[in-house]
Amino acid sequence: MVKVTVCGAAGGIGQPLSLLLKQSNLITHLALYDIVNAHGVAADLSHIDTVSTVTGHVGPTQLEEAIKDADIVVIPAGVPRKPGMSRDDLFKINAGIVRDLAVAAANFAPKAMMCIISNPVNSTVPIVAEVFKQFNVYDPRRIFGVTTLDIVRASTFVTELIGGNPSTLRIPVVGGHSGVTILPLLSQAPGTEKLNQEQIEQVTNRIQFGGDEVVKAKDGAGSATLSMAYAGARFTLNLIESILHGVQNIEYAYINLDADTDGACTVKHITQDVDYFSVPIEFGPNGVQRILPIGKLSKFEDQLLTDAVSELKSSIIKGTTFITDDSKL
Question: For residue 145, what are the CA distances in angstroms to 16, 141, 231?
Answer without folding.
Answer: 19, 12, 12
